[in-house]
Amino acid sequence: MKRKQDEKSFEGYIERVKRELTSPDVLTFRFSSHAGRNFAAVYLDGLADKTLLGELVAKPLKAAGKEEGAEEIARLLASPEVKEGKNFTDCIQGILDGNAALFCEGEEKFFIIGLKSPPGRAVTEPPTQVTVKGPREGFTEDIKTNLGLVRKRLKSPSLQVEMLSAGKQSNTAIAIVYLDGICKKERVEEIKRQIGENEIDLIADSSYISSFISKRPRSLFKHCGTCEKPDVFCAKLSEGRVGIIADGSPIALTAPYMVVEDFHSPEDYYITSYRATILRALRVAAVLVGVLLPALYICAQLFKIQLIPVKLLFKIASSVSGIPFSPSIEMFLTLMVLEVLNEASIRMPKYVGLAMSVVGALVLGDTAVKAGIISTPAIIIVAFSAICLYTVPDLVETTTTLRLLFLIVAGSVGTYGVVLLTAFLFCYLCSEQSFGVPLLAPFAPLCPGDLKDGIYKSHLLSMKRRPQSLSPKNKVRLKSAEK
Amino acid sequence: MKKLNVRRITAVLYAILITAMAFLFFTNDFGLVDIRKTAVIIGAGIDVDGEEVSVTAQVAIPQPSETGANTQYIEVEGKGVTVADALNVINKKTGFYPKLVFCKLLVLGESCSEGNIFEILDYFYRDDYTQLTPVVAMCEGSAAELLASKMRFGNTATVSVERLLSDEAKKSGNVSTVNLKIVGIDSHSPSKSCYMPYIRAQEQSAQGGEQGGGGSSSGQQSGDSAGSSGSSGGKQEFLCDRTAVFSDGRFAGVLTEEETFALNLLKNNVRHVFIPCGENELQTLSLRGCKGGVRVKEEGGVPEIEIYFSAVAQIADVNSAESPPSISDGVVPEDVLRAGERAISGRMDALVSSLKNSGCDALGFRTLLYRFHYPLYERYGDGLPSEANVTYKVNLRSAG
Amino acid sequence: MLKNKLSVRQICIIMCVYGAASKLMLYPTTMAAACGNLLWASILLNTALQSAIVWGVCFLSERTGVTFFELVQRGLGKTVARIIYAVYAVYFLFSAFAPMVEQQLMVHEAFYDTIPSILVFLPFFIFAVYAGSKGLTNAGRTAEICLPVFAVTVFLLLVMSAMECDFSALLPFGARKFSEVLSGCGRGFFRFDGGAVMLMFMGNYEKTKRSSLKIALSSAIGGITVAAVAAVFWAVYSDLAVVQYFAITKISIFFSAISLIGRTDLLAVYALDIAMLFSIVLNIQLASYALTKVFARPLTSIYSLALNAVLIVLAFALNNKFALVQSLASSVLGWATLACAYVLPLAAWGLKFMGGRREKA
Fold first, then answer.
1. pTM for this model (two decimals)
2. Which of A288, B226, C68, C118 reaches 20 to 30 Å from A255, CA-CA?
3. Contact at CB, B17 and C259, closer than 8 angstroms
């Protein structure tokens, strides 16, 4: 009994924290009031703001008397975020979150004071979703900033943010964001359940959450939408989706996901519907060309020469006649070179980049052709394919894998293999769902109303209803006079 | 009992599948006839020598080149009892697998006229991998020699003939271009007749002057296996303004240039043609908006053949000088129009007479009767074209 | 849990697209050989018969609201229902075999320049096992994807062949005897199994306003599309049509731009082949569905694997015996089609009346 009382004493608390948090960056700031009452603030160096600790905590408490209770002390504190600790776990968690735990001499209660100021970057334009027209703000790694960016756009009482914590060691804050009255509540519950069911040490990025909530995490196709722009995130919430923001990740997730989403660009909604439709059709065509062109080139060379016009055939035949590799291996090697260059160019320091591009383009490209190792058409096709795939950057992971698969099938089985693999993918995609919504919606199953924002982009005023594929609770999104 | 882990089994199966595919991918030389082993035949000539068929293929051999613009053409000859056999001989001799999918021209030598042409062409209709798109023509002399000719404009013989028999040339009414499909359909129709351009070679001097008369064909015959095109002799020019006609698959004669012109006006959708006319003053009329053809009508229970042609005429040239105001007027005088109509009717009449004499129904009277007046066909079909009662309706209107 | 629910729209698309796609391989050529210039008439006659029976089954489905299995079970007991579904499983298995052989031949001709090994066709079975294990809902969704592919490619191929068409070749109508048209109907009868397909869909969709009419009309549109392609095929090749084996791959080769841009028509054929593949696999999906009812266990992957194993054995056993396959299909399978797609659906109406009387009694 006595020991328990000791533990809840001023020094007992400090001792206990030091026992639990042995790391040297856990600091204790001891100070006294004019009346001689002792206080101690325990915080993590680097995460808590020391200036604020001095200004909002230490300075006001100088006036604290010897006998004042917890309520009076809390009133003296100038910090807007003061929480009374319920138990010792709260205390430890608060410190680890970057806040300060304040202990007062002669008082069993303690306070968690919001002084979190983790190092982070400012709100900038996201590098993966650059737009010419439209907002340029992007999410950052800080969950509070991200939620602020969302709140800034959705000033609605319906906006609900449910906070969870995931990761046994990381205790990463996860925010489930949705619009009450539009989004199906069951979907939110399902996501919460699936996140809760998985125990992992660390949630380093939102992609971990994406794997947790996917029914088929091993699938080649993703089951969660991703976005880095708060405007896109809010637009998706307003359609009836659930948003997930993880602390430490600038990529927010949205669910349910449909493949067609990735063919949409944020800019489509800020330009004319005609231009947007053309651009979307172009993206679809580009992805098809990017995935299928290397495979079809192999098929044409090995199995069905007729696919090539006769004059082009002579040119290709001239180019490939001195090449020591079979057409399929030549294409495979060229593709591998491209992948290596791509990988290296992303990771290498910027100042080496220029030199490496010269080596990549000139030495590997030009010299290989001159030496008769790789033919010119192969390089043209691989380069064009790579450019095409980057018209839909969100699908690049999937499409580059598919391109390789198609290439292998084309080189081994031929054109029929390509057709079979396409049919296989259709069949596979038709059976895949993301939170009850088929991945190929609104095309399969067909939702005629949703086709207004599929490949074809209708005018904003004609999209009066929310996507039916998402089965939103409130179906109407626009009420306007007929124009 | 341990429950089967379907997911693991599926993953293993996929891994095996991908490995097998990858193995095939990296070792895919399992008898494929790829782009490097293919002899792209751009044109073929067929001659018959007794019981033997000789196929001469003009083959494109792309040469290694950085710019990819270097192609050599050679003629390769193979002999066999059938066309397929001869093509197989080419494969044996050269190691190249001859593919006819890019063949755009098929020339039958004069020797083919002795038998039924479908004994030779049968291969092309039978083989699933051969299309019926190549243009078919018959040539004077040997097809092998024609393909080996050294051309005046530096092209291969195939390219030169192909240009002469192009769709544009067909629309000018000068050549009666047909492909394997048309030949086959016409021959298997109730008319049982077909036609194809008749190619004559003309030797030209190095300076370009004409040396030999029409019909003399030269050019070195390629060796047993291969030879570069036309290594000696004068340079050649081809004329395709005549037409060979066939009845029941057998050669029935050659139509003259005028008859060929009339045939083209009626059978092809000609676009812009020229025709000389006039008696004292000679004019060349330019005809546009041409509509010509053959109709079969029933007159008192008897089939009546009507050959019709209408066009808008303009004077293209006159053999006498005219003043600018009369040229700018642009109206063709009535007498010139009538002279033009007479010239066209005359050519058509010559064509019909020639076809009647040869017993060839190249204009398809019997087919028309079969399709549009079937009851009459059963009674009168056999009498056509020799007993045909033909009327001509030619109408030229002045432009302007 | 495997899903077998379909929407009326999906059934309409299946009837139209899959019904037509499976008949665009060798069917026009066989009809050209049987009926000459009246090939279209024979196709239309069979289409009319099929549409009528499809309408009948749809109407029955609307009136009863139960699956065919439940209908038989109510009238004749569970054992009989299982036996009938086992018969249907066998029927659909063999229905898949004939178009599969045609597909194999078409692949050899249209996808390769030289005759490839039979092994090249083996990946078809990998796809068939996978797709065959999916339920009817998946079939409906793939049909929705196939609709635009089918419509665009057929339209393109028809447009590309338009310049070469001589529709007067379809004349005269009176030159051939009606018996030839009937003989053509008989030869192609096994392909018109819409009644049997519809029996399997029975009770698996929610009826809507005029759904019977819509489904029957879709089936008719599919047949009319086949007849149109066949007519164009004859208009392009006339008497040579009988030696042009795969109409859809041949009708547009005379398109003038092909010499400049290569065989782009083949790309359309390849895209169309996706619909053809799904139309063949639909039979396996239906056989799988029937077996699920027979064994009352949804082990569709195993059923699909077993069905495809039988198909592989048949494919190897009857390799290079195409004439035999065709003659067996038009005779034995023709009678089987008469029984499964026409007689049994009519008998189902009888069961409905029996059930009605029993309820009244």
1. 0.88
2. A288
3. no
